[in-house]
Structures are given as structure tokens and as C-alpha cells.
Amino acid sequence: MSHKVYKWKDAPSRAQQIIKYGDTLFSTVRTYLKNVAFINDHAYDNQICSSGFTVIRAKYKIIAPEYLFYYSIFEGFVQPLNELQTGSSYPAVRDDDVFRQLINIPDKIEEQQSIVAEIEARFSVCDQMEETIETSLKQAEALRQSILKQAFEGKLTAQWRKDHPDLISGENSAAALLAKIKAEKETLKKKK
After folding, report:
1. pTM (2 d.p.)
2. Measured distance CA(145)–CA(126) in Å, rounded
3. Distance of CA 2 to the CA centre of its chain
4. Domain spanning 8-104: CATH 3.90.220.20
5. What pLDDT is attached to residue 20?
């Protein structure tokens, strides 16, 4: 999460809310983007945030703060808010709209914490999968570039190498191929 530091006298007029450790900050603008933050660092305790966020604060020893955070990024929570947004260039909801959303909360805080632990364990697996996919995508792109390089160096087919021995050698093979294509284009233009 990023933040800016201001002196109180220089703070924007929208910077009006004091946040606490364990709060969830839910952006009231373009709710479908799920710009939601959980304050899990004591460095942000008693800091000020914009009124462009609804500050969702758990009741001590009744609701696990992390449970509220995860619930606030759940599609079942966000989708009804998406439908309540008003305004075309700056679609937003009010704090009251956010606070009116129904939340399924288990009675015991221990059960809430158990649910949070399970969510975090499964999200960890998702993160690992995401890393694997990103690595695979990078490898696929490197392979594509290698294939293109081989293609333009004339190294993909034996027949092509036999047909174009003059284009295979040296660093300028791609340039030579492009020059030949350009020359053939000019010949076709002249024939027309």
C-alpha cells in the first residue's frame, strides 16, 4: 500500500478519516476495481485517509478484522455495490451503501479466524500457481523470440537453407532476407 505524507494544514480536504490498525479501507469509487486495503501495519495507526474510502472497523472481540477484509473483496459483497454506483465519469457509492451490505458472520470469533486461516492458506497456493504461470509465460515468450530469430536467420527448414544459401551466413541474414523481399516487391511493382 502506498501513502503520501502531508502536514495537517496542507492535507487535501478529502483527507478526513482517522484509521486504525485492523481497519479495512474500501474505495467508494469504481467499486468493481476492488481497491480495498487492510491496515496490518501499526505504522498506519492513527493516520488520516481520504473520504473516498469507507473505513470498515471490526468490533473488538466480536469480529475478526481480517474476516471483514476478505468479505469486502468477495464478489457477493462487491456486486450489489456495483449496481448502486451513481455518476458516469466518477461512479461511486456512499459510506451508507457500504455499511448496509449484509455480511455472513459466524458467531464465534475462533470460527472466523479459522476461515481466515483457510483463505490465506489457499491464497498462498494461488500465489504459487500465479508465479508458475508467470514463469511459464516468460519462457513461452522467450521461445517465440527464439523461433522468430531462427526463422529470420533461415534456420527453421532444411529446404529453405538449400534454396537460400546466400542468406544463411553472418549476422546480416535477417537484413539480407528483408532486402531480397524488398527487391521482389519492387520487381512486382514494375511488372504491374
Report:
1. 0.68
2. 29
3. 15
4. yes
5. 94
